[in-house]
Amino acid sequence: MGVTSGSDGSGGADTRTDTRADTGGDAGGARGADAGRPLPVEAAEIAAGYDFTGPALELGALLWGGECLADAQIRVPLPMLNRHGLVAGATGTGKTKTLQLIAEQLAAQGVPVFLADIKGDVSGISAPGEAGDKVAERVADVGQEWEPTGFPSEFYALGGIGTGIPVRATITSFGPVLLSKVLQLNQTQEQSLGLIFHYADQKGLELVDLKDLRAVVTFLTSDEGKPELKGIGGLSTVTAGVILRALTAFEAQGMGDFFGEPEFDTSEFLRLAPDGRGLVSVLELADVQDKPQLFSTFLMWLLADLYNDLPEVGDVEKPKLVFFFDEAHLLFNGASKAFLQAITQTVRLIRSKGVGVFFVTQTPKDVPADVLGQLGNRIQHALRAFTPDDQKALRATVRTFPDSAYDLEEVLTGIGTGEAVMTVLGDKGAPTPVAATRLRAPESLMGPVESGALERAVRASVLYPRYAEAVDRESAYEKLSAREAERPAA
User: Fold this and answer.
1) Could you say which of 6, 43, 95, 289 would form a disulfide bridge with 127 (CB–CB 3.0 to 4.6 Å)?
2) What does pTM read for this prediction?
3) Residue 282 to residue 80: CA distance in whole angstroms
4) In whole angstroms, what separates CA 440 from the centre of its chain?
C-alpha cells in the first residue's frame, strides 16, 4: 500500500516534546477556564472572528488575561490554506509540533501534505501518539477530544541519502538558476551557466547528471571545444573555468547522488490513501542537514516542478496539497535576483493551482517582503529578546501583525512552548483578529518512529521499486566520451 498507519510502528519511539505550555506574559498562565462561563468582552470579540461555518482546522484555544479559554476556539478555514502561511518562532518554541498538528488535520480532511524533516523527528506522524499527564493536561486546557492516531505516510530521502525512497532530479530539470544557487555562483556566472545549458540543448547533449554537465564544460574549455566556446556569446574561458571548478568540487563532496534518473515525479505528493485521507509525504533531511544550500534549493525545485505541471483550478474548497518549507531562511540567504524572482513568482501563482505553501523560520524578517506579503496565515511562536538585535527583530515582527488588543511585544516574549500568536484569513478572505493561542496536542507520535518500522514502511511502498535504483542512460557524458575516443583514429 505504500503508507504506514503506525499501528505497529511506534514501539521504541522517543516522545521528546513537552506539550505543556509554560506560563508567560499576558497570554500564558492558568489552566483552561470553566466551560460555559461568559467570555470577557475583548476575548469574545476575538473569538467571534474565528466563528466560521464550513470545514476548518482546529488549532487551539484563546489565551486572554492569564487564562486559556476553552470556549473560544481558534480555527482556520480549510479553503484558506492555499493562501499560504508563515510559522515562525525561536528554536524550541514548538514550531515542529505545530506543523505536525496542521498536517494531521489536513490529512484527516483529505488534503495531501509535504513536510521536510530536518531534525529527524517528524516520522512519528505515521504512528499513534502516546497518552500521558502532559498530553492530558493540554487536552483539558484547550477543550480537545484527543484520540491517538497515526496518519498515512510516505518517506523520502534526497538522492537516497537516508532510509526513504530516493528523490532525484535531472540537471536539465533543475535548471541553471537553481543550480547556480547550489554552486554559489555569482550573477555573471549564473548567466554563463544558462548559456551552457542552451548550448547543450542545441547540440543534443542531454544533461541528466553532474558528470554530463561537467563533461560539456570540460569540452568547451578544451582545445577542441574552444571554437564552439567562442560561438557562445557572453561566455568567457575564465568564467567557464570557474564553473568547472565549482562543479568538480561539488561532485567531490558526494553531491552527484542527488542528480540523475529516474527523476522523481512530484505528482506522487498529491495522492490519497485508500481510506480517503491525504497522504503525508515526509522528506528526511537529517543526513544532509550539513548541506543547507543543497536541500533548501532542492525543496524549491520540488515546488517549482509542481507549479509547472499542475493545471489552473482557481479557488478550491480545499487545497490539492499543502507544502511546508522548513528552515526557509536558508532558501533566501545569498540568493541572486533571478532566484528571488523565481521564488516570488512561484509562490504568487501556485495558489491558483490549489497548492498552499507555508514557510517555517525564526522571524518574519527571514522572508523577503515580496514573499511575506503573500502569506495570508500567520502563526508566530515565542521570540527571545536578549540582545539589541533580538529586540529589533521583535519590534519588526510586531509591525507585521494587524492592530491588536494585546501588547504583542510582551506576549511574544512571554508565551510558552506550544503557544503562539496568530492571525489567519477568515472564510471571506479578510484577516482575523490577532489571537494568542494555546495549541492543541498532535494525535500522532511526537518523536521519531523506530528505525526498523520506518525501513519496513519504505520497502513496502509501491513507489520503492520505481525509484530505488539509479539508471545511467546515454547522455552528454557518454556522447562526448565516444567522440573523444574516436578522434585519434580519425
Assistant:
1) 6
2) 0.88
3) 23
4) 21
